[in-house]
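A quick aside before the break. I want you to see a complete sequence-to-structure record at least once, exactly as it would be stored in a machine-readable document. Don't worry about memorizing anything.
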Amino acid sequence: MPDHAFTDARLAGLYDALNPWGPGDDFYLDLVRGAGSVLDVGCGTGALLIRAREEGHPGRLCGLDPAEAMLAVARRRADVEWVRGTLDTARPDGPFDLVVMTGHAFQVLVTDTEIRTSLEAVRGLLAPGGRFAFETRNPAARAWEGWTPARGAEVGGVRVAHEVVAGHDGRTVTFDTTFSATGWAAPEASRSTLRFLSEGQLDVFLEEAGLVPSVRYGAFDLSPLTASSPEIVSVCQVTD
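That is the input. The structure line, written in tokens, reads:
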């Protein structure tokens, strides 16, 4: 589920219930376990890093997110660094052995400039031999076709529904997210735009930043990337 509307405190508290731990979290957690220091860009409520610390991860764990409401939830764990901002505004000191962008956070980078700037920042934060892992929805799978009010979800008495207002134009999709509940004076609503990149388009940006995929999957079950795969999952390393 797109998470860009969860900036209100009462909604941020529902995020983990609406987005329960799944195969993607297991995938990234396995990478975190093998890294001495980790930066989670767009960490949200911090579930990934908190789980790693609970398991006994001994190294540096740092989460970066622009939404104060989400970080307020994450800060229940004080032995993880939590930084409010983006790679542009509040870049933590590196280096890191692993940088991750989970939950399709990469797709929030809409313009070419945003993508280039962020990838350059990631490249600069990686320690020698470090890795950058992230996923983006495969545009060929047309995930936005399922973002309809009829497929909304309800958790804790709050109903969340999505509706596309500007379909795929070859680059982006714009959609509204509406939260409603009995007793609320009015629904809460927000509008978000996500960028969809093909594998080839993505690799152009990665190459410009000095990054190259060392492994790539079409889903978090480690299946190979095909034309119909739902995801483009990339684990990248710095080019020589």
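Two observations worth writing down. The first strand starts at residue 37 and ends at 41. Helices lie at 9-12, 15-18, 23-33, 47-54, 68-74, 112-125, 199-208. We'll return to this after the break.
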